[in-house]
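Cross-posting from the modeling subforum.

Setting up a comparison between two proteins and wanted a second pair of eyes on the formatting. Protein 1 (sequence, then structure tokens):
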Amino acid sequence: MLKHTREITIGSVKLGGDNPVLVQSMTNTDTRDVQATVAQILRLQQRGCELIRSSVPDEASAAALPDIIRQINIPLIADIHFDYRLAIAAMKNGAAAVRINPGNVGGKEKALEVICAAKDMGKAIRIGVNGGSLEADILKKQGRTAKALVDSAMRQLEYIEATGFTNYKVSLKASSVPLTVEACTLFAEQCDIPQHIGVTEAGTVFSGTVKSAMGIGALLLKGIGSTLRVSLTAAPEEELRVAWAILQAAGLRKRGAEVISCPTCARTDIDIISLAEAVEARLAESDKQITVAVMGCVVNGPGEATEADYGIAGGKGVGLLFKKGQIIKKVAENELINELMAMIEAE
């Protein structure tokens, strides 16, 4: 059960409150290249991206935003560093929100200009606090700790709240999983502001998936998080695949098919590894919200298949097809996947 936070609006979507956790990613195209950026966003939309962030490092990137936004169907968040004027320009050009770190946009006064502009234009802001960019005085006094991250956020929120602006969310991130979880938990105990969660600079597909699953999963199970990004050194499509898998594993949202499969052991007489990978690949683009079990023997197979919508239990060169726990038929190993898919698609 998610902790209740205030609700905010980002373009056409609601975030926080009683709304589901939203999935976002970030483009890696040159924002000035409208065609490439739009093409990538459309691909990400198809894979379940609900909010998209794009870097706006210069005036040309800000100028490209209207053409991009006109061709996509999800809210765009402009990622801003160092130049507060780009944040204001991005919002004027259609960005639903901006991501800023008040510590690197030229100080409190310039950050306030961005906040007041967002308030006037009905936009949203993400206040980002990273372990690697803490204020010097906080870092000197507390070190890179969870309390330091929270104190940095609270310092910024004091003057934001004084403006009467409330349409914002906060992120507290570090490359350390324990530090990220501790900071986000401490922050959630102190206020009702929606959090964007994730482990920053998590790493490659393998290591980054592990760290993200640990960090994001731990927070979601505590009820913390209104939106998330899995930060991988990989194509954004991979981030979405992992993000939805984490949400599904946490029991919070479901998108497409879920494959459960058993580990290998000496009882397995079928090529369960190849079989499970092939089933997962065939179902990758499916929009059916189903569970499919791929089991390697009769010890666990029938029982696990009972809990799934569809299932396979392997034998020596053959396999059993299950549907809602009932055996449908016995099929040769080389026909299992096609028969399984035919059964699923017939529904």
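Protein 2 (same layout):
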Amino acid sequence: MTRPDEPRELTIHPAKLPSRLPPEMLHIKPGADRVVATDPARSGWRYLSFRSFGLAEGEVALLDSPEQEAAIVTISGGGVEIALDGRANLELTGRPSVFEGLPWSAYIPAGTTARIIGRPLPGQRSVVAIAQAPLTGRTGIAREPIVVAPNDVQVELRGAGNCTRQVNNIMMPDFPADRLLICEVFTPSGNWSGWPPHKHDVDDPPREAVLEETYFYQFRRPEAWAIQRIYHRDGSRDLLLPVHHGDLVIVDQGYHPFIATPGYDAYFINALAGDRRTMANTDDPDLAWVRTLWPDMEPDPRLPLVKP
């Protein structure tokens, strides 16, 4: 049944499209230029595009696919200026690194031509992450660009004990975007994120929704690595991916917990897109019981790693 805020032509898929990607295609490593990118053709899904790159002072990058909505998030090295046709430029001050400040971000509505201009700190490059997705046609979507400043970011601590992590909610379901959902997660060294493991590859409201997702990783020490697992309960997929600074992982289906190696604080930014504006997901039923332990456990005192 179509909800009042969804047009009749919107297609809700009962299940994730079968993945046609071989497992090794899920892990994208940066080249010498430190650029990583994926799109629906590369990912084997329907909507989400993601890329990250750096800009020198005054260097310009065009926003791809201006007919789609976009989210631009500053990652490291300073900020950017966004030049918009017929509108005042947007200034995103940025941050030296993800561990030295909350993000500056911007939502760019579909149909907007934008140029992204590097405004880095001296001697650095401004690294940004950009997510894009086509429109559903639903109403209530922002028609003007929106700057999300650090003070607008909702900081949340989830879990307990060595499952505690910090989540920076940037563009969540209550944000007036269409498909795009954006958040950041900080995992202290030795801790787990996405635990108990969860998935979002079946349309079963309100329990679960189909969401395409990317993970883009940063580490306090760039020589670090961590482990991203992606698996199905029936064993038809079971991957352990050693992820490094600047890597990108495609989560097209399955459970996907993450662990930071001892001594190395980890970060990733999640971009998601689907047919429903929700973060609904379901836990692995074999492991969901661990939530019952948390009321008797203290949160990790190292968090938040980046204070609001």
